[in-house]
Every structure is written in C-alpha cells, then in structure tokens.
Amino acid sequence: MGNYRQVIEDCDKAIELQPKYAEAYNNRGNAYAKLGNYGRAIEDYDRALEKKPEYAIAYNNRAAAYWSLGNQKKAIEDLKTAARLGSENAKKSLRSQGIEW
C-alpha cells in the first residue's frame, strides 16, 4: 500500500493554498478510494467537478468509487458523461458492457 495518508495531507495543503484546484480534490479522492473510503472519495470528486465541470478524469474516478459501493446506475451515468467528454477509458468500459453513450 502506498503512502496515501501523505497524499491526503499534501492535497489538503494544496487545497488550502488554492481552493479552486480541482486536480487536488481529484487526487485526494483517489487516495481515499485507495484506502477504501469510497464515500469520502466521492465527496472529493464532487468538489473537483464543482470546480471543473468538464473534468472527465474525475467522472471516471467517481464512477469507479460508485461501482465499488455497488451503485452501478450512478457509475454508468458518470462513465457516459466521461465518454461524452472524450474519455477513452470510459468509452472502453461502456463498450465492454455493451452500453451506448
């Protein structure tokens, strides 16, 4: 396991310095997801998307967190949004499930 708690601390500092820094929220969400705290990860992905609404990577990451919580409906909605924003990973995931976006 990586040093995800350090990543969280680093992102906290970045957010304190630049509260509109969507990537810091996304990265902190990734660290929480790696620690199995998917609810907190989703909160951070939500914040990243508030700051940067067309942030396809955050939609992909939030989809993975929803999927891990068993909420496939929300995961697929986020994957569709990411695909429409040009995410090749989201397109592959949807295609593998036979889902159009």
Fold topology:
Elements: H1 4-17, H2 22-34, H3 38-51, H4 56-68, H5 72-84, H6 88-96
Helix pairs in contact: 1-2, 2-3, 2-4, 3-4, 4-5, 5-6
Quick structural overview:
With 101 residues, the chain is an all-alpha fold. It is built from 6 helices and no strands. The protein has a single domain, classed as Serine Threonine Protein Phosphatase 5, Tetratricopeptide repeat.
Task: Record keyword descriptors for this entry.
101 residues; mainly alpha; Serine Threonine Protein Phosphatase 5, Tetratricopeptide repeat; 0% strand; globular
Give structural notes.
- Helices cover 75% and strands 0% of the residues.
- The protein is mainly α and 101 residues long.
- It has a single domain (4-96), classed as Serine Threonine Protein Phosphatase 5, Tetratricopeptide repeat (Alpha Horseshoe).
- Helix 2 packs antiparallel against helix 3, helix 2 runs parallel beside helix 4 and helix 3 (38-51) runs antiparallel to helix 4.
- The longest helix is centred in the N-terminal third of the chain and has 14 residues, at 4-17.
- It is globular and about 40 Å long.
- The termini are far apart.
- The mean pLDDT is 97.
How confident is the prediction overall: mean pLDDT? 97
CATH superfamily: Tetratricopeptide repeat domain
Low-confidence stretches: none
- SSE succession: HHHHHH
CATH topology: Serine Threonine Protein Phosphatase 5, Tetratricopeptide repeat
> How many helices?
6
